[in-house]
Design goal:
Blueprint (H helix, E strand, L loop, with lengths): L3 E4 L9 H14 L17 H9 L5 H14 L4 H4 L4 H10 L3 E5 L4 H10 L8 E3 L12 H10 L6 E5 L2 H9 L3 E5 L13 E3 L5 H5 L2
Parallel strand pairs: 1-2, 1-4, 2-3, 4-5, 5-6
């Protein structure tokens, strides 16, 4: 019996991937810097350090540029409420009414997770949330999911995960978890490691009720 669902955040609860990508590209264009890759899927599921390593490689001024980007990002804050998947509140309400606990395991920074929960009024549904800052190793390492299991105090057999990225799926499978892969929409992503692919969050109930 499933007692908890662990959600990734970006690309699963909020459709931020394209938004973040465009914001980073706009910043680099403003600085006249050519990124190493202009393929959005190359950055999905990674923590900020890994993203900037992949964007800039060994550019000597990388740390300074990232500090500037943080300032740029603060001046262009994410409106999570506008990016929230429409079925999230209903899915969270149904899970809570069924006694199924909810956790978030994300590579995002903790303030971004908290801001999303605040803006979207979702705090009341969440048992625990873990960020990239809470782990020494990032996805695809399973640490964030192992920590979520520890926080929930549940065995892996009683939890399922909803992910979208290849690194996220790999992390969850590395923790021994059943994984749903959310349809990435307009961009391509390797989701072959997932147990089941879904087009909407509400599709998880067919598995939970089975």
């Amino acid at each position: 019996m499933v007692k908890a669902v662990i959600f990734d955040m970006d690309g699963v609860l909020v459709e931020t991937e394209a938004y973040y990508f465009k914001r980073r590209m706009a910043f680099l264009k403003e600085k006249n810097i050519e990124p190493l890759s202009k393929k959005m899927e190359d950055y999905i599921g990674l923590d900020n350090k890994s993203i900037w390593d992949r964007l800039l490689g060994d550019v000597p001024s990388r740390e300074g540029l990232y500090a500037e980007y943080v300032s740029f990002r603060e001046n262009n804050p994410t409106e999570f409420k506008e990016l929230l998947r429409k079925d999230v509140p209903d899915v969270f309400e149904r899970l809570t009414e069924s006694g199924v606990r909810i956790a978030i395991a994300s590579s995002s920074e903790r303030p971004d997770i908290e801001r999303m929960l605040d803006q979207c009024s979702l705090h009341k549904y969440i048992d625990c949330y873990l960020s990239g800052e809470d782990c020494q190793k990032t996805k695809p390492d399973p640490e964030v999911y192992l920590k979520a299991l520890h926080e929930l105090a549940l065995p892996k057999e009683e939890c399922v995960v909803v992910e979208d990225s290849a690194v996220g799926i790999q992390a969850a499978k590395g923790a021994g978890l059943f994984v749903f892969a959310m349809n990435p929409g307009t961009h391509s992503m390797d989701q072959s490691g997932a147990d089941r692919k879904i087009n909407s969050l509400s599709e998880i109930f067919a598995h939970l009720d089975a």
